[in-house]
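Second attempt. The first submission of Deoxyribodipyrimidine photo-lyase had a stray character pasted in from the spreadsheet, which I only caught after the job came back as garbage. Lesson logged: always re-copy from the clean sequence file. Corrected sequence (431 aa) follows.
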Amino acid sequence: MTKQKVTFFWFRRDLRLEDNTGLFEALQSDFPVIPLFIFDDEILENLPKNDARVNFIYDSLQKINAQLSEFGTSLLIKKGKTLLVWQSLLEEFDIQKVFFNKDYEPFAIKRDLAISSLLQENNIETFSFKDHVIFEEKEITKADGLPYTIYTPYKNKWLEKYHLSGQAPEYETKALLKNFAKNQFPFPKLAAIGFEENSIKVLPHNLTQIANYKETRDFPALDSTSYLSPHLRFGTVSIRKLVNWANKKNQTFLSELIWREFFIQILFSFPSVVNHNFKSAYDGIQWRNNEDDFKRWCSGTTGYPMVDAGMRQLNETGYMHNRVRMVVASFLCKHLLINWQWGEAYFAEKLLDFELASNVGNWQWAAGTGCDAAPYFRVFNPEIQQKKFDEKGIYIRKWIPEFDFGYNEPMIDHAFARDRAIATYKAGIIK
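This time the job returned cleanly.
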């Protein structure tokens, strides 16, 4: 039997049909396009069977599949080790071209090199595109071509380049969707992928909630955040549309989007930050790493209401307000002297918006060991943070219902913890 000559578009962190760079290019190829998503065993095997993020990916794929049905086509969903999946696809189809959007994390780079090599060995043209960011890899560099390691000059160069180009181009795919192959593939049940439903859900994003973002973003009780971060993480929204909107409407929010790209380029340029301090001078810090203290932090029972409310919000919803993230991260690293990697791993397990670059970057910022980090002697006082940003205790009472009925004493005195942290950092810094 003659195999079907096709082009493949491989969905990964870009779970949308509209304004999708690689998809836009694929749909203009000379062959009908099969849309593919692979549930990668190498990623899934490390996740709990009710992982809420897998639920979100699955739901997003269902939405894409419903859209595709209007054009007489469907998603091809595969599960397995990615290289083995592609080897089986080579046997099943006469693949002419493969398109996908780039991913800048170390695991993804290694995976994509292996897949590209396999395809090229089989004389299949392979095309990858920038889609997850506005500026990638080496597009924003210092005059000597080296990457920026301080945010503000990076941001200034980023804005200069963005404004010179007018705005980020948006790709209209609607007229091209007829170019999908008309194959009808079965859509698997969640259980067939080895997962089950989780009551924790990704919330819809809402830009109207950040109309006064600059003035309200630090007050967790106001809930004036966009809930965009998981959608950005998995690409259910276009970064180009968001940046173009923010440039016109909300410069403070735009700065946060640029922070995201800053950390992505740091991870790409310095992949060792995943497991090591960006500033090696801090490698000598003698962390206490007390497991009982860590458990109290994880469960939100430290006796510091702002810390505990944040951790309970995370555990119950997969979200945590950004101001509170800074407070709980500082508390773990500075008050308890627990290595930032412990906190980074816990957030990686729990956060719906977990993205390696931002998670590592922000944790090292809080610990004082990263690029452009908070100085080691900055130790957030959780009680002052509470008075400044949740003075009436609205946020705290939402997540700590027992707060008014005799709350726990703090597990450690702030003044003692601050002095101990500063002394420990000073002693640990390698000259």
